[in-house]
Amino acid sequence: MTLPARPFVAPLVLYFEDYPPGRVFELGDIDVDPIEVQAFAQRFDPQPFHIDAAAAAQSAYGGIIASGWHTASLAMRLLTETFLSPDSSLGSPGIDELRWLLPVRPGDRLSGRASILSARRSQSQPDRGIAITLIELRNQHGATVLTMKAVNLLRCRPA
Amino acid sequence: MTLPARPFVAPLVLYFEDYPPGRVFELGDIDVDPIEVQAFAQRFDPQPFHIDAAAAAQSAYGGIIASGWHTASLAMRLLTETFLSPDSSLGSPGIDELRWLLPVRPGDRLSGRASILSARRSQSQPDRGIAITLIELRNQHGATVLTMKAVNLLRCRPA
Is A6 part of a structural domain of the chain? Predict the structure, then answer.
């Protein structure tokens, strides 16, 4: 799979305390690379409307669309650049209500936003907390293409 | 990204009527390729416990683990081979309760199962139905590493 060039983004320094409910993070933009759309789908989601231009044109989508897992993975890339910090990110137990609302097409440009819905300190492990965040991706026309609620385990700021 | 070799699997011919509640599909196996783990994470999820062996060894995971989005994408590959049919698969509006239950490590071998939870004919578009399916991935030790509930739009069998 080609790895589209992407400028280096310095890692953030953030801790659980930096994710209060209501805080909104703008996640920046990422391009939907046509070659990557094809390569991702060939490997992980080789359905005709992802990999076969003629079949896709005849489908309800009217042309090739990106695998929803590719779109979600692009959202993850934005999250690692402008939302999660290597100093505090401990991983995620899961995602709720992942929604693919509109097709994402090769050449689209997606921008993201993360809004903290809730945050609570862990009772069993007081060095960390759990944040639930609404993630939204919009395309270059301003239409929301993906939403999901992510659960993140986050280390607290050292005493 | 390297594309690990995978034998060709003939497309299934299935329609909405073939997905009744209670039917279970065994999805087969797929290897977690170490080079792909690294390449996927470098592009989409470059957190230290996915890409940096030394940092991962010091983390709670004790070594490199695959991005959860990579694991979900491997599940999708199995679904395209042994569950979804190009004759009926119309895409998915989303996923509920995606859970990463245990770490997935380079070299693991994952096997999948899809169990139909519900299936209903669309009222607005009678040529299709909506199935909700529990997807489970287990590792080579029999431990469940991922579960999710997938919503699929499926074309009905032609009259």
Answer: no
